[in-house]
């Protein structure tokens, strides 16, 4: 048997035994990180959630404070900060890397290839997949919030004009707004206020959680108007009009980017087939006449 194959099997065995030892240690020692989250995790996490919860206390000490802060911000933008912790995300990355490396290494060894040449890249790719999925979810959530924000601002403005205060107007947006991430954020804001958190702190927490300039500008305008005793109606109307204008500008920018994005598929996929169809009769005629 090849020496590289033996070395690969030995490395795989050591990695699997280390993972089993970590899981056994985590299963035997409970930690505050092992507490159930206030919100259930997404359905894709639920099959491996017991293992992730037990593995989080093991990888927690190896996670730096800066990395935890960045992961919490990413989870907040994705709307999963109450369901998944930073340590649990790192544990999911380690678990995905170990599983992908073991499976691809075993398949490579069975097919006669060098296992580590396949296992290492697949493990690295699997380790970054959870974070890539979170970034994609955060981007989709950001676009949905920006698209829904003008409608909710109009609803809040109409509610205030009808005689409601800002808290009741936000409640109308949380109850009657279209389903989406922004309505979830209004509902979370109201839950925080009902739990005893001051409204200005809950608004600032929402702005920091979403990390959107439009939401930060809205929160700053609301807090300034409430502090100065100014009327909220013109401020909210101006905010809604500005957000609607920004949405149109984004749509125009995306429309201008469409021809550039279509250029690569045209050159790579459509133009060769078109040229082949157009040139086939000419080439066939030249072949019949003996020119080619």
Question: Which labels suit this protein?
Answer:
2 domains; 292 residues; mainly alpha; 80% helix; single chain
Topology:
Layout lengths: L2 H26 L20 H11 L5 H14 L7 H26 L3 H47 L4 H11 L4 H14 L4 H12 L2 H16 L3 H58 L3
The overall pLDDT, averaged over residues, is 82
Oligomer: single chain
Instruction: Report the helical percentage.
Output: over 70%
Number of strands: 0
Description:
The chain has 292 residues and is an all-alpha fold. It folds into two domains: 3-139, no CATH class; 143-247. Helices cover 80% and strands 0% of the residues. The chain contains ten helices and no strands. It has helices spanning 3-28, 49-59, 65-78, 86-111, 115-161, 166-176, 181-194, 199-210, 213-228, 232-289. The longest helix is centred in the C-terminal third of the chain and has 58 residues, at 232-289. 23% of the residues are buried. Mean pLDDT is 82; it is low at 30-34.
Summarize the structure.
With 292 residues, the protein is mainly α.
């Amino acid at each position: 048997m090849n020496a590289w194959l033996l070395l690969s099997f030995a490395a795989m065995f050591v990695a699997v035994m280390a993972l089993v030892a970590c899981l056994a240690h985590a299963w035997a020692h409970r930690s505050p990180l092992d507490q159930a989250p206030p919100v259930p995790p997404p359905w894709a996490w639920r099959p491996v959630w017991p293992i992730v919860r037990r593995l989080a206390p093991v990888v927690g000490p190896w996670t730096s404070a800066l990395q935890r802060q960045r992961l919490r911000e990413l989870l907040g933008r994705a709307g999963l900060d109450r369901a998944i912790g930073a340590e649990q995300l790192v544990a999911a990355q380690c678990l995905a890397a170990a599983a992908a490396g073991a499976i691809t290494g075993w398949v490579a060894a069975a097919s006669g290839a060098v296992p580590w040449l396949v296992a290492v890249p697949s493990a690295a790719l699997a380790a970054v997949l959870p974070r890539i999925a979170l970034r994609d979810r955060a981007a989709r959530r950001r676009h949905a919030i920006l698209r829904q924000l003008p409608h909710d601002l109009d609803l809040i403005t109409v509610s205030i004009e009808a005689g409601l205060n800002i808290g009741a107007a936000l409640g109308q947006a949380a109850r009657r707004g279209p389903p989406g991430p922004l309505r979830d954020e209004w509902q979370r804001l109201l839950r925080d206020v009902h739990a005893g958190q001051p409204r200005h702190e809950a608004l600032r927490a929402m702005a920091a959680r979403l990390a959107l300039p439009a939401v930060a500008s809205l929160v700053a305008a609301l807090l300034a108007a409430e502090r100065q005793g100014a009327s909220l109606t013109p401020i909210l109307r101006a905010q809604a009009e500005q957000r609607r204008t920004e949405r149109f500008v984004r749509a125009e920018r995306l429309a201008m980017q469409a021809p550039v994005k279509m250029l690569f598929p045209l050159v790579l996929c459509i133009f060769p087939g078109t040229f082949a169809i157009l040139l086939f009769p000419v080439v066939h005629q030249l072949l019949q006449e003996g020119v080619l």
